[in-house]
Design goal:
The structure is a single chain. By secondary structure, the chain is of the alpha/beta class. It has ten helices and ten strands. Helix 4 packs across helix 10. The radius of gyration is 20 Å and the shape is globular. The mean pLDDT is 94. Bound molecules: 5'-O-[(R)-(carboxyoxy)(hydroxy)phosphoryl]adenosine and zinc ion.
Length: 339
């Protein structure tokens, strides 16, 4: 079989990314332009700013990905792009770029679902696939558990009822004035903290459910800072020891909940193999705790490589290859969808 090179394009949230991947598994280039600095002052992603920033960055990102891979249009087997879910204005920039190139270069246009791409990122760190897997996608926008039967087949087992885990970490970091994005900031603040310094109840563990809820934990943190009812208007942040203990306790509560649900799903479905992807999957405490608890549960836990956890285009090109092989391409009427 001749090599198939796919150009992947990602612009669903606050990263403009382009990559070339060979045969669905070998990245030849990966360019990620992060907009973090542009959104930091606002404490979160501002859709208007994101859309405009993608517009400036998309052509340079694609150019650089092609150049770095030493690749020209004729070498490509197809162009894969995130078409959903995400911010509409942001998705439109990537999809419009992909359509234009597919038309100009006469290449197949391959629409990709962003969450399925996060799962594919985890599959990329497995040498020999052994389906089915229990899969956790945990990011700023999503916290969902699936049963994965192939790169293209996922059945939802449970999802968050309110905040995504990354969103909860981002909001907690804002309350603790640790900066944005919150996940890495909490991780750093928590590094030397006592994870048992503060009590955070793990929600929804007493049922059989595979759903998540993080808003209660966030409110508990608010009350710890602002007193009962969260009414105190002059919250004094804890001293540094307490602050690192609070960050560590909160981070541990979030990660512990994720791990317990994953391993519960593995047990309930008799599938002792768990894949984990999405931005929060970068988290060091999650990786260490999961390795330990999965070992005890006789399950195998596989994480996406850290550089493939946060938004990137390698995972888009990778899944694009699988979709192209299955004949799942789109015409130039391709639309975007927020959910
Ligand atoms: O996958 P991603 O880049 O974007 C979405 O699809 O949402 O995930 C971003 C999320 C943010 O909430 C960020 O705080 C979190 O991933 N994150 C982390 C870490 N790095 C990024 N959370 C915990 N620990 C980290 N090291
Ligand atoms: Zn993502």
């Amino acid at each position: 079989m001749t090599d198939q090179l796919i150009l992947g394009i990602e612009s669903s949230c606050d990263e403009t990314a382009a990559a070339i991947v060979r045969n669905g598994c070998e990245p030849l280039s990966s360019i990620v332009y992060s907009q973090i600095a542009e959104h930091a002052a606002w404490g979160g992603v501002v859709p208007e700013i994101a859309g405009r920033s993608h517009l400036r960055a998309i052509v340079p990102a694609i150019d650089e990905a092609m150049r770095e891979a030493g690749c020209v249009a004729q070498d490509l087997a197809g162009i894969a792009v995130t078409a959903r879910p995400g911010l509409l204005g942001s998705l439109l920039v990537g999809v419009t770029a992909a359509k234009s190139l597919a038309w100009a270069w006469d290449k197949p246009l391959i629409p990709v679902h962003h969450i399925e791409a996060h799962i594919y990122a985890a599959l990329m760190s497995v040498e020999h696939w052994q389906f089915p897997y229990i899969t956790l996608v945990v990011s700023g926008g999503h916290t969902s558990l699936y049963r994965t039967d192939s790169p293209l087949q996922h059945s939802l087992l449970g999802a968050t009822r309110d905040d995504a885990a990354g969103e909860a970490l981002d909001k907690a970091a804002a309350m603790l004035e640790l900066g944005y994005p919150g996940g890495p900031a909490i991780q750093e603040a928590a590094a030397d903290g006592d994870s048992r310094a503060f009590e955070f109840k793990r929600p929804m563990l007493d049922r059989d459910s595979l759903e998540f809820s993080f808003s209660g934990m966030k409110t508990a943190l608010l009350y710890k800072l602002k007193g009962p009812g969260g009414k105190r208007t002059d919250p004094t942040l804890p001293e540094s020891d307490d602050l690192s203990g609070m960050a560590a306790s909160f981070e541990t509560a979030v990660m512990d909940t994720l791990i317990r649900k994953c391993l519960r799903a593995a047990k309930m479905h008799g599938i002792p193999r768990v894949l984990i992807g999405g931005g929060v999957a970068c988290n060091r405490r999650l990786r260490t705790m999961m390795a330990e608890k999965a070992g005890k549960a006789r399950a195998e836990a596989i994480f996406a490589r850290p550089e493939h956890c946060t938004d990137n285009a390698v995972m888009i090109a990778g899944l694009g290859h699988a979709r192209l092989q299955a004949g799942e391409t789109a015409d130039l009427q391709l639309d975007v969808a927020a959910s």
